[in-house]
Amino acid sequence: MRLIPGYPGRDPIGKTRGYASFGAEKSLLLHSKKLLYIRKDSLKISGYTIPVTKITDCPMKESLKLKKSWDRKAPFYEWIRNFPGLSWILNAENRAVGRLFEEMSIPEDSKILDIGTGDGNVIELFPEKSRKNIIGLDTNKAMLTRARIKYPGTHFLQGDSRFLPVQDNSINVVTCIGLSEYIEDLSLLLKEIKRALSARGLLLLTISPKSIFTSLRNLTGATVYARSSEEAEKICANQGFEVRKMSRTFMQVQYLVGIKR
């Protein structure tokens, strides 16, 4: 892995930004209690190019806690998903998400960004011909390694959902399944998604509703931010989105969201 000096400039407290790393994942860089994201000149995917610009840094605290939690869970992820009872809940969630997929009628040439892709669970819901046009983004290297093995034709990047490594209005469809509950400031996530989406782009978003079962998920090590449907819909509206369709399962609410016209 080649290291080069970080982008010229200083952070608010006057310290240099550290180093930039051009590794295989291309976007996640770690140095001195900060995450540094290099957005390279362009990302060529299946005949089209997504220009990527800017260099962005962000506080480490929340990102590191989430990353460490998934580092612990990654080796046991498949076992956890297949655990009796939990597998029933997750399969019901996948079916609900799948029904919203059918409502979207996604063209095969759509540019798709799957945020919080994990091991690619959502990617299998897309038609096989569309998978070459998907970028899967996740913070966890181990999960991305699993995803690359399962879907060798799909492009995966390691990075933070709040600092997407794509240019404005360059994505047609964003999926954000099982991620928002790990983000304290949902408005920041939605603002960044809206920046990346095209004018007629669609977002498939899930939230974890407030319940005792959602609260118990905090025992896994990562903080889980439960939200009511009213709260989530208000945040979406404040960021310029409108809810087109909604469904609900035992521990999840699914939304098909579009940019307000």
Features:
single chain, 261 residues, alpha/beta, Rossmann fold, seven-stranded mixed sheet, 14 strands, disordered N terminus
Q: How would you describe this protein?
A:
The protein has helices at 61-73, 77-81, 86-104, 141-150, 186-196, 212-216, 229-238; strands at 2-5, 19-22, 29-31, 34-38, 42-45, 48-51, 55-59, 112-115, 134-138, 155-158, 171-176, 197-207, 241-249, 252-259. It contains 7 helices and 14 strands. By secondary structure, it is α/β, with parallel strands linked by helices. It has one domain: Vaccinia Virus protein VP39 (Rossmann fold). The chain is globular and about 40 Å long. Strands 10-9-8-11-12-14-13 form a 7-stranded mixed beta sheet, sandwiched between helices. A 3-stranded antiparallel beta sheet has the order 3-4-7. Strands 1-2 form a two-stranded antiparallel sheet. Residues 1-61 have low confidence and may be disordered.
